[in-house]
tRNA 5-carboxymethoxyuridine methyltransferase
Amino acid sequence: MKDRNFDDIAEKFSRNIYGTTKGQLRQAILWQDLDALLARMGDQPLRVLDAGGGEGQTAIRMAQLGHHVTLCDVSKTMIARALVVAEEKGVSGNMHFIQCAVQDVAQHLESPVDLILFHAVLEWVAEPVPVLQILWSVLRPGGALSLMFYNADGLLMHNMVAGNFDYVKVGMPKRKKRTLSPDFPRAPADVYGWLEQIGWQVTGKTGVRVFHDYLREKHQQHDCFDALLELETRYCRQEPYISLGRYIHVTALKPQIDERTNDE
């Protein structure tokens, strides 16, 4: 199976994700985690890889903070859109744009990076473990991974709340090929297991949109956004709410010493 390329629906992707409270809330919670992660990594400019970074919303903000950012995406259209915005914001000189699949990014990097952003990509990748291994290989020892993935458990909960019982019974197959519904929703236990098997030390888990998508009165997503964000922030880093998030954001570190080769 081929991994998803958004060239054909880039405008729809931007409008339906970034242009909604879904995207606004996702970015707000994500940046709470990223700000804390950056604070722990010190004051120096970091070499950041945004793997599958799309329109560059997160990458551009990283560049605005003074970090050196490489953005790669398989979509030519997404890369072009990211470059336009980066130029408008005056940070394109602090960024490097690569049109390639995440699986091919290693050949485009001159040295290991300090921080990898891998957001809302894993659920579009047919073979997740090899991709995570590639990301491991381009991260320096002591570096950090910021991984956000589409949660299969949250998808099930969402469909049950909506009363889609028959759809859940048959395993929630994807109905249309060219939609924004991810091809491969991921079970959290699988993702945590893959990371630990490769060697990462998971340091944080955050549920993203743990309440937003389940609201019966959808107008409250917009009308009560500030109150909703406050409550999402209060509960999103504790169970059971982490596991109910439509996405889960995981932070992980690559140890200074590769413990897999240290048998003493």
The radius of gyration is 18 Å.
